[in-house]
UniProtKB/TrEMBL annotation:
Pfam families in alphabetical order: TgpA_N (PF11992), Transglut_core (PF01841)
Keyword Transmembrane helix: yes
Full protein name: Transglutaminase-like domain-containing protein
Source domain of life: Bacteria
Keyword annotations of the record: Membrane, Transmembrane, Transmembrane helix
Residue ranges crossing the lipid bilayer per the database entry: 9-32, 38-54, 59-76, 112-130, 135-152, 158-177, 189-211, 600-620
Domain Transglutaminase-like as annotated: residue spans: 462-537
Residue stretches of biased makeup (Polar residues): 570-583
UniProt region (Disordered), positions on chain: 541-587
Bias-annotated ranges (Low complexity): 541-569
Gene3D superfamilies cross-referenced by the UniProt entry: 3.10.620.30
Length: 724
């Protein structure tokens, strides 16, 4: 027992460090009391100690079972004493939970169920590490487990992964130490290896912080793949099975704290049968806090009219498109009313009672209708007319308010972007263009970081993270415009959705999902009212080609052709496939789809290529030694002693050399166990001892062939059992 402890104590210590490093994140994720952590670590130490000391399975297995059950009892006593009664209750709970998971009643692992599995696996790993010294398999399993834990719970577990990798490499290096080394040299080797490995581990953990370019490059290159997976609902599925802190897409009532990643939710909210696509506004907010958006007033009013009339631009006296009818159907009752930009009229017979919060431009449906019809006329804003509106520093304090805590560089950026523009429209589009195209910002729902507590939400996005989604871009444009005296407010609702029916008819069915939730800024133009703009990349507020619009009068009809900006033409070009009878538009959609798939296919091909290399490397692993040895003979053809030591080290991996065993005796014992050598290893050993002790160099003739032949035999013997 003492000799076994002396031989295995380092492996046991490393095994203990590995399993403890892997178990701590698990305890944290399931929020087990921190006061119990030392008990758990102590039990792992006891299991490692029993594994190294007790070799007989008949003795150690009952001890494993007792340790396993007592640890579970310590965490989950179920108000019963430790004994068979408790074991029966615990087993019953496990079976009941398994039945619920199998039936789909629950889709997560309860803490007692998870602990029973993880503790069992940790005991098996201790045996694998200490008794069988299978460091590679055990470490890969733990690293894979930590990666899954990180994905399902959105944790940064890079340090535990680096530590386990370092411990595993140190484990490997200990196995390579020749048994002929003195204890002093062994200790020096272990200390030096430990220092080097943990120095590398420290540099690895600090490298992404000191040099973020590689991380940013990987995030950028993989963005299209992760965006596609998010659209397919992968991250949403992960969130349902984990305890993720990430939000999901959808219309949120509380916008006081914005930031952080969001996962796409493909739940259908409502459908709309209509003649064209457009954005759906639900409400606006006017008070920016530095962290998000609120409203300064939420006074509720009730309408006494027979028809609910909504005009997003009441002071606008320009052209309107012909009136059309829209049929809106909710999948499940909603309290909010989504409505398009323009003039909307809804009979109360259709929707029942409503409440309005004028400050938010929001309408609440009190009777929760499931389907209703309404009429709508979209506004047609002439670009040339908007460009004639002069810029003046507004006195509307509410809609140009910026917190005093917002850094001054936000205003400085806005002024530098607009200093060459004189009109209001020019300044607005300059900032919109900067955020959307020229500023180097990246759109991502999955990579958006949380805003640090000490940072301003907009400032952090503009100057530090430069990664975000609609909330980041719309808030940034709103605050930038406000900082130079342009009245702007934050609007939210839904983008146009996806065409799901009637593609070849005038009336098409659009399906709007939670993932279509969106936000954008509205800018006030005198004589026009609040005009929506779109700074978010991959979303488009298109400027249409000149088109013919018909305006009715009492006596005649006149046709007016104008280049227009239509709020109803805003659409999400990356997430929505718009139906159009125009062949040119179909071709553009096809090209857009192809351009989206190309980076995805490229990244998939790269992943498959990497996997292929790993698989090929796995099957060629046993030949690495032979390739390395041949390379050594090419580079150092005169260094026979070093070549022999490489062969000896490989032989010691197959058959352990006893302490103080003479080299010639070891060679004879080796060939007695591996008869395929037919004296070649003994012959090389004799030549090595003659060169080492007698100073007689070996003859070069046939030496290279003998060395290569022996190396090949050692390579082939890697997975063979020694003959008796």
């Amino acid at each position: 027992m003492k000799s076994r402890l002396k031989e295995k104590w380092l492996f046991t210590l490393l095994s203990f460090f590995i399993v403890v490093t892997a178990s701590l994140p698990f305890l944290s994720v399931y929020a087990f009391p921190k006061s119990n952590t030392f008990f758990f670590i102590g039990m792992l130490a006891l299991i490692c100690f029993m594994t190294v000391l007790i070799q007989r399975y008949l003795i150690v297995l009952p001890l494993y079972v007792i340790s396993y059950l007592f640890t579970l009892y310590y965490y989950f006593p179920f108000e019963r004493p430790f004994g068979f009664t408790w074991i029966g209750v615990f087993a019953q709970r496990l079976l009941q939970t398994y039945a619920k998971m199998f039936s789909g009643e629950i889709n997560y692992l309860p803490d007692f169920f998870a602990l029973s599995i993880i503790l069992f696996l940790l005991i098996l790993l201790c045996v694998l590490f200490i008794r069988y010294e299978r460091w590679a398999l055990g470490s890969l399993l733990l690293i894979g487990y930590l990666l899954m834990l990180a994905v399902f719970n959105q944790l940064n577990l890079s340090i535990p992964v680096i530590l386990i990798s370092s411990f595993a490499l140190l484990f490997y290096s200990l196995k390579q130490i020749p048994t002929t080394l003195t204890p002093k040299k062994k200790s020096a080797f272990v200390l030096l290896s430990s220092f080097i490995l943990f120095l590398i581990a420290g540099i690895s953990s600090l490298f992404p912080l000191m040099i973020p370019q590689p991380k940013n490059f990987l995030l950028t290159q993989s963005a299209s793949v992760r965006h596609y997976m998010n659209k397919q609902g992968l991250y949403r599925q992960i969130e349902e099975y984990g305890s993720s802190t990430a939000s999901k897409t959808g219309f949120s009532e509380n916008d006081a704290q914005l930031g952080g990643p969001i996962n796409d939710d493909q739940t259908i909210l409502f459908t709309a049968k209509q003649t064209s696509d457009h954005y759906w506004r639900v409400e606006t907010k006017n008070h920016y806090t530095g962290k998000g958006w609120t409203n300064t007033s939420e006074i509720v009013t009730h309408s006494e009219e027979q028809t609910l009339s909504i005009s997003t631009n009441p002071e606008y006296q320009g052209a309107l498109a012909p009136e059309t009818t829209i049929t809106l159907t909710f999948r499940s009752p909603k309290e909010y009313l989504p409505y398009p930009y323009g003039n909307t009229a809804i009979s109360f017979d259709e929707i029942g009672r409503t409440e309005q919060i004028k400050e938010k431009q929001r309408f609440t449906l009190l009777d929760s209708p499931t389907s209703f019809n309404f009429t709508w006329q979209k506004p047609i804003f002439a670009q040339e007319s908007l460009a004639q509106v002069p810029y003046t520093f507004s006195q509307d304090k509410q809609n140009i308010f910026v917190p005093v805590t917002t850094p001054k560089r936000v205003e400085e950026l806005a002024r530098s972007l607009t200093e060459n523009e004189e009109t209001l429209y020019g300044k607005v589009t300059a900032i919109e263009r900067y955020l959307k195209q020229n500023g180097g910002y990246r759109y991502s729902k999955t990579d958006t970081p949380y805003t640090p507590q000490t940072k301003d939400y907009v400032d952090y996005f503009l100057f530090e993270s430069k990664v975000g989604y609609c909330d980041n871009f719309s808030s940034a444009m709103t605050v930038l415009l406000r900082s130079i005296g342009i009245p702007t407010r934050w609007a939210k609702g839904f983008s146009s959705g996806e065409v799901t029916g009637g593609k070849n008819t005038n009336y098409q069915e659009y399906t709007i999902k939670n993932s279509d939730a969106h936000s954008w800024p509205e800018v006030y133009f005198e004589g026009y009212g609040w005009i929506p703009f779109e700074p978010t990349p991959s979303f488009t507020n298109t400027v249409s080609q000149p088109e013919t619009t018909t305006t009715s009068t009492s006596n005649s009809q006149s046709e007016t052709t104008t280049e227009t900006i239509s709020s109803s033409e805003m659409k999400n070009t990356s997430e929505t496939t718009a139906s159009s009878v125009a062949t040119q538009k179909k071709e553009e959609t096809s090209r857009s789809t192809l351009s989206q798939w190309l980076p995805i296919l490229r990244n998939v091909a790269l992943v498959l290529f990497t996997i292929s290399l790993v698989v090929i490397g796995f099957f060629l692993k046993k030949y690495f030694f032979l390739l390395r040895f041949r390379l050594h003979l090419i580079l150092y053809p005169k260094q026979f002693s070093k070549a022999y030591r490489l062969l000896l080290r490989k032989a010691e991996q197959l058959l352990v050399r006893q302490i103080d065993e003479p080299l010639n005796e070891y060679a004879k014992r080796f060939e007695a166990n591996y008869i395929a050598f037919h004296g070649s290893f003994i012959q090389l050993t004799v030549l090595y001892e003659q060169a080492l002790y007698g100073g007689i160099p070996p003859e070069e003739e046939g030496l290279t062939e003998l060395l290569t032949h022996t190396a090949r035999l050692l390579t082939d013997l890697k997975k063979r059992s020694p003959s008796s």
